């Protein structure tokens, strides 16, 4: 059987406005003629990304300064918050053509959600974002915070993001949810119960926490053994979409992507039809600083899975070579356009970072 090609944006064709139902949104990054290949950094010391609800005041002041400076950069600087937010829009809402599209669909656009690209793409995105923050405060080893929503004390929006005067704030959120426990099952559990009793009620705080921990157990322990269950379905290039289900974008997400990850997006986004900006829609999610902390925790799940006891399948380096070689483009902290490949992003310590070692209560929360 012929090996399919890796997924990559086609940089020889122009980037275009992102496509939304009934709308087109500009999302293309500033142009650059020079592309360099990403190289793994020389790691002298591992930086630890802290849980956002546990950071101290010194850290917060540093982080706010970095965010303030990122927001203050000119809009055409690829490192500005404005441009960083667009990265998500471009890759998620079809701004790029796919290199080696399906043979029967030469104009196929690239999408990074609901497939095996989900975890690696977002890891890369955060990596460059974090390096830019560090550059802006002259601290190359600055580590961004993660939103520890899988642990009881982290199950509300982290307080540091809630001050309207802070550069971490975003007015486009669901204000009713500001101090409410997240529901990682996105209402499914409470709905089941309400029909049982014939009345609508909300879970108690302890009930909600238990429910969230059970969701995590299902996604991360019982439901993460097979590679596709965790990462998502295979999405390949250069095949024929008529006879190959793996040859189309969005073949299906993994349990974390479809479950807790989407639940948090919906929980934070404003209730504003039709798009529920910012977090409630892919095109606008990157405009909320909380997005990056949310994805920090999603990325942390990938690290945790790697360290779990028991067998966990990984994609085969030969059969699934196209996954390892899939590539995306980002601007680095020096404004270079960099081409990064999935295989370079499989081990966070080789990238120079790890996550603060906090308790993982869902490991003991088998439903
Ligand atoms: Cu690219 Cu949480 O989405």
Automatic annotation (TrEMBL):
Domain named Tyrosinase copper-binding: residues: 113-130, 288-299
Q: How is the cofactor bound?
A: Binds 2 copper ions per subunit.
What are the UniProt keywords, alphabetically?
Answer: Copper, Disulfide bond, Metal-binding, Oxidoreductase, Thioether bond
Per the entry, which co-factors are needed?
Cu(2+)
For whether the record's keyword set contains Transmembrane, the answer is no
One MF annotation (Gene Ontology) recorded for this entry = metal ion binding
GO BP terms: namely: pigment biosynthetic process
Family that this chain belongs to: Belongs to the tyrosinase family.
Annotated protein name in UniProt: Tyrosinase copper-binding domain-containing protein
* Species of provenance: Hibiscus trionum
Complete protein: which residues are present? 62 to 428 of 587
């Amino acid at each position: 059987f012929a090996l399919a090609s890796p997924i990559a944006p086609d940089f020889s064709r122009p980037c275009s406005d992102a496509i939304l139902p009934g709308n087109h949104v500009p999302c293309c990054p500033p142009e650059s003629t020079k592309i360099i290949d990403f190289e793994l950094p020389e790691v002298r010391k591992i930086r630890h990304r802290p849980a956002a609800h546990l950071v101290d005041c010194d850290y917060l002041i540093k982080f706010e300064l970095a965010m303030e400076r990122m927001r203050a950069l000119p809009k055409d600087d690829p490192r500005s918050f404005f441009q960083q937010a667009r990265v998500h829009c471009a890759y998620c809402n079809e701004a790029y053509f796919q290199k080696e599209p399906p043979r029967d669909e030469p104009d196929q656009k690239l999408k990074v959600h609901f497939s095996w690209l989900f975890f690696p793409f977002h890891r890369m995105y955060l990596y460059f974002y974090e390096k830019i923050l560090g550059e802006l405060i002259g601290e190359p080893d600055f580590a961004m915070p993660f939103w520890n929503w899988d642990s009881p004390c982290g199950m509300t929006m982290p307080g540091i993001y809630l001050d309207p005067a802070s550069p971490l704030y975003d007015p486009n959120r669901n204000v009713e949810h500001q101090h409410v426990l997240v529901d990682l099952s996105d209402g499914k559990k409470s709905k089941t119960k309400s029909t049982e009793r014939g009345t609508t009620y909300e879970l108690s705080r302890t009930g909600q926490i238990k429910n969230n921990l059970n969701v995590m157990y299902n996604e991360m322990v019982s439901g993460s053994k097979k590679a596709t269950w965790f990462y998502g379905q295979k999405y390949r290039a250069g095949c024929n979409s008529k006879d190959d289900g793996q040859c189309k974008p969005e073949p299906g997400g993994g349990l974390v992507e479809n479950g807790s990850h989407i639940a948090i997006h919906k929980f934070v986004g404003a209730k504003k039809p039709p798009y529920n900006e910012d977090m409630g829609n892919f095109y606008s999610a990157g405009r909320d600083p909380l997005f990056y902390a949310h994805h920090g925790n999603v990325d942390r799940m990938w690290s945790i899975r790697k360290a779990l006891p028991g067998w966990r399948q990984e994609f085969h380096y030969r059969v699934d070579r196209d996954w390892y070689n899939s590539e995306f483009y980002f601007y680095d902290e020096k404004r270079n356009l960099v081409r990064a490949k999935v295989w370079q992003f499989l081990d966070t310590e080789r990238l120079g970072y790890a996550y603060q070692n906090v308790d993982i209560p869902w490991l003991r929360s088998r439903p």
